[in-house]
Amino acid sequence: QVQLVESGGGLVQAGGSLRLSCASSGRTFSSSYAMGWFRQAPGKEREFVAAQSVSGGSKYYADSVKGRFTISRDNAKNTVYLQMNSLRPEDKAVYYCAAKRGAVTTTSKYEYWGQGTQVTVSS
Length: 123
Prior knowledge:
The protein is mostly beta strands and 123 residues long. It has one helix spanning 29-32, and strands at residues 4-7, 10-13, 18-24, 33-40, 47-52, 59-61, 69-74, 79-84, 93-101, 112-113, 117-122.
């Protein structure tokens, strides 16, 4: 069983930055799990934000965040990050990290999900 705990959300002005963290339990995290970030705004469907392969060599981003957000992972710390720069009011959402064994995907077909962390961007 893998447990994921997000942190780092909060309130920031437009143009500002936040770094989200997702800490994972489980000793096999570094060698087995692809990681993803998703978000859900009020009244909207959950959407893909970013994903990274098990090795870290492949990264994928939604067009809406490309060039502004960066996903990274520190396997020694069992943690994945989402650096968010140049934040916009439309980035406001609850952000979730997710993990799955095997190949990375940009779909929501992840096995494990965190509880989410709120990001609010004021204009």
